[in-house]
Amino acid sequence: MIEKKLKLYVNMLGGTSLTYKGKTINDQNIRSKKFWLLLEYLIAFRNRDISQQELLDLIYPEGKSENPGNALKTLMHRIRNVLDELGYTDSRNMIIQTRGTYAWNVNMDYEIDVDEFEKHCNKGNSPWAPEEEKLENYLKAIELYKGDFLHKASLENWAVQFNVFYRTLYSNIVHKTIDILKKKSEYEKIIEICDKALNIDAFDEFLYYNLILALVNSNNAQTALKEYRKMSNLFYKEFGVNPSKEITKLYKDIIRTSKMVETDLTAIKEVLNEGTEGRGAFYCELEIFKDIYKIEVKAKPRTGETVFLSLMTLTTSGGEMPSVKLLNTYMDKLHESIKKSLRENDVFAQYSVSQFVLLLPLTTYENGEKALSRVERAFRKQYPYCPLSIHYSLEPLDAPQMSS
């Protein structure tokens, strides 16, 4: 019987490894940086001969070697010895040396994941391919993309161009795949793809929108709300921005439609009481705060109760917007001071990257100022070295204008 010829498999997406007949060498079991830098460079530029000087500049960018030529030969010898361990036929010719140059042997029977990834992307992007064929190729490409190109060397100047190219290609086909899957109502697959893609690019709002939408359509509204809050907090902390109007509208729609019909009042009371055992002011998302505000405004003519609206802002000592780093540190701390210093029937939400908005049911303006001063004192006592200033304003809610 003729033995089936086996391929050498090379992976460069999400980590580097070479596999043959079940044996693998990778950047986990061999941790030498120079070893992988040299081998990865030869494979990445596999279509050309690379001079000895170019390789020396790669592994000794500052020329720190007494005998660089011998150092390169020693490193190459070590690479060949490790490749021998794979048991690949004629492993000594996996790297070819000719007249002072080195090259990866492209005539070997091998398969490399980046080539396969790009092949499936191109097939899927073909304008003549039917939609089912596009989807099939996109899904194969997504499966192959296990992470960024040579992620341990991704900051090397020569690797950046590859990394950007493959990351952009991946992002584009993920978006196209999700659009196709939405037409087919394959929400579980969308959730799976979005989860994986967000681990690679945590700031793609398109992915969050479609993940949340797919969760809702899979009857996972509570998980969808958690994902929205996670995204909202992330965007606040990293960029100091609110989610887009599109995704905020989706969030409001979830809030209004996610509750299933329930006829057991005892069960309803249990749901409503969830989380109410904690002391302090009630914190909610801004969209919920807006709804509570509208209810209070409409109820004012009927109840006669005085409710005050307040805005607390963190600024620099000169009244300017602080850096995102400072806000990330102290907005969470101000949040805790508000919660602990106010009453359980007070409501607050984050209004912007540097502000909280509050609803305070109080009898007088003076009581409102006392409550806000109490928050500031608690904050200063806990964080006396905070370089930021707290500014607050206070106004009673206006009753709605009656149409004549």
In short:
The protein is of the alpha+beta class. Helix content is 52%, strand content 14%. The protein has a five-stranded mixed sheet with strand order 8-10-11-9-12, sandwiched between helices. The protein has a four-stranded mixed sheet with strand order 3-2-1-7.
Overall description:
- The protein has 404 residues and is an alpha+beta fold.
- It folds into 3 domains: 8-111, Winged helix-like DNA-binding domain superfamily/Winged helix DNA-binding domain (Arc Repressor Mutant, subunit A), CATH 1.10.10.10; 113-257, Serine Threonine Protein Phosphatase 5, Tetratricopeptide repeat (Alpha Horseshoe); 279-396, Alpha-Beta Plaits, CATH 3.30.70.270.
- The chain contains 14 helices and 12 strands.
- It has helices at 33-44, 52-59, 68-84, 113-125, 131-144, 157-183, 187-200, 205-217, 221-239, 245-257, 265-272, 286-303, 324-341, 365-382; strands at residues 8-11, 17-20, 23-26, 50-51, 95-98, 101-104, 110-112, 282-283, 307-315, 347-352, 355-361, 389-396.
- A 5-stranded mixed β-sheet has the order 8-10-11-9-12, sandwiched between helices. A 4-stranded mixed β-sheet has the order 3-2-1-7. A 3-stranded antiparallel β-sheet has the order 4-6-5.
- A hairpin with a 2-residue loop joins strand 5 (95-98) and strand 6.
- The longest helix has 27 residues, at 157-183.
- It is elongated and about 90 Å long.
- The chain starts with 7 loop residues before the first strand and ends in an 8-residue tail after the last strand.
- 26% of the residues are buried.
